[in-house]
Design brief:
The complex is a heterodimer of chains A (408) and B (239). With 408 residues, chain A is mainly alpha-helical. Chain A has helices spanning 2-28, 38-62, 67-86, 89-102, 109-134, 143-160, 164-186, 191-211, 213-216, 249-271, 274-284, 286-291, 296-322, 332-345, 350-366, 374-388, 403-407; strands at 222-223, 229-234, 240-245, 324-325. In chain A, the strands form two sheets. A two-stranded antiparallel ribbon of chain A has the order 1-4. In chain A, strands 2-3 form a two-stranded antiparallel sheet. In chain A, helix 6 (143-160) packs parallel to helix 8 (191-211), helix 7 packs antiparallel against helix 13 (296-322) and helix 10 packs antiparallel against helix 13 (296-322). The longest helix of chain A has 27 residues, at 2-28. Chain A starts with a helix and ends with a helix. By secondary structure, chain B is α/β, with parallel strands linked by helices. Chain B has a domain at 6-89 and 159-235: Rossmann fold. Helices cover 37% and strands 27% of the residues of chain B. Chain B has helices spanning 44-51, 77-80, 97-104, 111-124, 126-130, 141-153, 171-188, 199-205, 223-228, 230-235, and strands spanning 6-15, 18-28, 33-38, 57-64, 67-68, 82-85, 159-163, 191-196, 208-213, 216-222. In chain B, strand 1 and strand 2 (18-28) form a beta hairpin. In chain B, 47% of the residues are buried. The chains are: A mainly alpha (408), B alpha/beta (239). Chains A and B meet through helix 11 and helix 12 of A and helix 2, helix 3 and helix 4 of B.
């Protein structure tokens, strides 16, 4: 044990030196060419103090010196887990749903804006999860389908005055079509090659949107897209149906909440279906899946198209909410962001991805105060996550029964 | 004479740029256990993968129950009754044992019969029943081999292609696996084409054998004759 502690402290010392080497050029080199050491050193000292305390506690814990604090804590933790376990799953689902529905009542515009973003990314994350988490194909160009969905609604609305609800299936359809067109030639590839090719296709879609001036108005984007509208019954002058554009943020929130819940239910059903299992078999071993009678090409294409559909739905909402689309919203960085959510939350795990999207959207907002170090903290958090929980925040485990199990 | 259930006529195929099979011909009759023995790199696995359509056929013909199956998509073969247990088990590690078995019956729609077959597999391998909720990757090597065989049996194969079921297993487990292979053959009259490096146990189990050397068949005979052949004894049985 002592030997192990020594090793930890040695690694810690090396880590601190590494961190200083990383930190000093960022803080100590100035644009007039002068070099200082003071600022880097003071930041470094804070980090040193913080990590030293954490590591000391950890070492003490390892050497069983902190046992007297540990046991009541462990007991409390056990009690909480037991209490949580005693309540059925549907209770938690209902609780989260209630909070989600009531959210606009006790929040401001800003919180609603963030919540809308979270829901958009949950929809995207779950869509990408079909491709990456279930079928095991690394897709770096997923955001292209988001873009196709967004531009489909924007163009249908601007050119033909089509309403959001009518255009929504069209957005899904065109995204799906784009998925099939891109997927058909690329899905014969596996692994790294597929990742590179999807990256390329994602960029191609963005560049087409950027350069097709006559249709998409190029980098200037499309303006004046109408928000979704609804008819609602009014009793002011007898009974009549009134039309209302959902311009208020909290009304838009309910629209994306609806889309998001639809996505969650659909992905959940897919996850535990015969098709879902075939996707997982392909992820595990494509050749053997084929030997077992799975038409791997068709199922991979289906996964790609399904993922694209949810991307398209999210895209249509995005353009209706912003009332403006431009190609720069669909850059590679967005693909990387959605992929991070899936990996961070836990591949193929629906609650994991919801949490992942939540973490990656809400945490940067919380840390807006320390804007300067946001990306640094983000990178550090991702590195730590991958070191300590490579399976994701909530790793996937089979919770439901498959459809045929219930039938048989 | 009875018609062969599986017949390869002058089959050649490449593995990458390497000529792996140089015109091999073999016949398997219904209800038989036939083995292909040979050293590493002789083309044994390639033979099975070519039959299953994973490795593309370059020349020659493959007939299954009198029908040509060369050029057919690999995923259509299990429904015809031709299923393979690939080399090195290759179970689906992150699917539960039960789901692995269900994948074997992927193309089937008859839920009741699938239940029955699963019960049969569990009676063959009781250990799989104990572990049916466990991930396949957490099983031991022998259990994984049982799972791989069980998974293939879930497709109700008429011809079962087995690729080195003894690979990396303890002798006592190998013995057990081969007893079960024999049992499957006797009980269901399932035809078995067995590829093995362990020539001793393969020739004991099989009725006939082929010897494969660098992509060509150099000998074929009854298993007993091969077992007593001095050349075979020298090259493959370590004498």
């Amino acid at each position: 044990m002592i030997h192990e502690s020594k090793k930890i402290w040695k690694n810690y010392a090396i880590g601190l030196i590494w961190f200083f080497v990383l930190l000093w050029p960022l803080l100590g080199i100035h644009k007039d060419g002068s070099l200082t050491i003071g600022r880097a050193f003071s930041v470094w000292l804070y980090v040193l103090a913080g990590t030293f305390i954490c590591l000391s506690l950890y070492t003490l814990h390892k050497n069983d010196i902190l046992k007297w604090t540990g046991s009541p804590m462990a007991k409390a933790k056990d009690r909480v887990t037991a209490a949580a376990g005693a309540l059925p799953n549907w209770f938690w689902v209902l609780l989260i749903l209630t909070v989600a529905v009531l959210l606009p009542l006790f929040s401001h515009r800003y919180a609603q804006d963030v919540a809308i973003n979270v829901l958009i990314y949950i929809t995207l994350g779950l869509g990408l999860n079909i491709v990456v988490g279930l079928a095991g194909m690394l897709d770096l160009g997923y955001i292209a389908f988001y873009g196709v969905g967004a531009y489909t609604y924007a163009l249908l609305n601007l050119q033909y005055g089509m309403s959001f609800w009518v255009a929504l299936p069209f957005s899904a359809f065109f995204a799906c079509l784009a998925g099939c067109i891109i997927g058909y030639p690329t899905l014969r590839m596996r692994g790294d090659y597929l990742a590179i090719v999807t990256l390329g296709f994602g960029e191609i879609v963005r560049i087409i949107l950027n350069n097709w001036m006559e249709l998409t108005n190029g980098p200037n984007g499309l303006l004046g897209i109408k928000p979704p509208g609804i008819y609602y019954p009014s009793f002011a002058h007898g009974f009549s149906l009134e039309f209302l554009y959902l311009k208020k943020l909290y009304l838009l929130y309910y629209v994306i909440l609806f889309i998001c819940i639809f996505t969650i239910v659909a992905v959940y059903r897919l996850n535990f279906s015969r098709i879902g299992r075939a996707w997982e078999a392909i992820r595990e071993d494509e050749t053997v899946a084929e030997l077992m009678g799975v038409n791997t090409f068709r199922l991979k294409l289906l996964a790609y198209a399904m993922g694209a559909i949810f991307g398209g739905l999210a895209g249509a909402f995005f353009s209706a909410r912003m009332r403006f689309v431009s190609p720069e919203s669909f850059s590679f960085l967005e693909s990387a962001m959605v992929l991070s959510m899936v990996v961070l939350g836990g591949m193929a795990s629906i609650p994991g991805i919801i949490l992942g999207a939540f973490a990656l959207i809400v945490l940067p907002e919380v840390f807006r105060e320390v804007e300067l170090y946001r990306m640094l903290a983000f990178g550090a958090a991702m590195t730590l996550m991958m070191l300590f929980r490579p399976e994701g925040l909530i790793p996937a485990k089979r919770v439901g029964t498959r459809s045929e199990e219930r039938g048989g | 004479m009875e018609q062969p259930i599986l017949e390869l006529k002058n089959v050649s195929s490449n593995y990458g740029n390497i000529k792996a099979l140089k015109g091999i011909s073999l016949k398997v009759f219904p209800g038989e256990i036939v083995t292909i023995i040979g050293a590493n790199g002789a083309g044994k696995t390639t033979t099975l993968m070519t039959i299953c359509g994973i490795v593309p056929l370059r020349e020659g013909e493959i007939y299954y129950r009198g029908q040509p199956i060369h050029g057919r998509a690999a995923d259509t073969l299990p429904a015809l009754g031709l299923c393979q247990v690939p080399e090195g088990r290759r179970i689906f590690p992150r699917l539960a044992v039960e789901e692995n078995l269900e994948m074997g019956a992927f193309f089937r729609k008859d839920q009741d019969d699938i239940r029955k077959d699963m019960a049969y597999i569990y009676s063959l391998f009781p250990v799989l029943k104990e572990r049916r909720k466990q991930h396949g990757g957490t099983l031991s090597g022998g259990e994984q081999q049982m799972l791989a065989i069980g998974r293939a049996l879930m497709s109700r194969p008429k011809v079962l292609l087995l690729d080195e079921p003894s690979l990396g297993l303890a002798p006592i487990i190998v013995q057990k696996i081969f007893e079960i292979i024999d049992d499957i053959n006797k009980r269901n009259r399932t035809t078995i084409l067995l590829v093995e490096q362990n020539a001793n146990i393969a020739l004991q189990t099989a009725q006939r054998g082929y010897v494969l050397e660098t992509g060509s068949i150099v000998m074929e005979d009854d298993a007993e004759v091969l077992m007593n052949d001095p050349r075979i004894r020298k090259a493959y049985l370590g004498e």
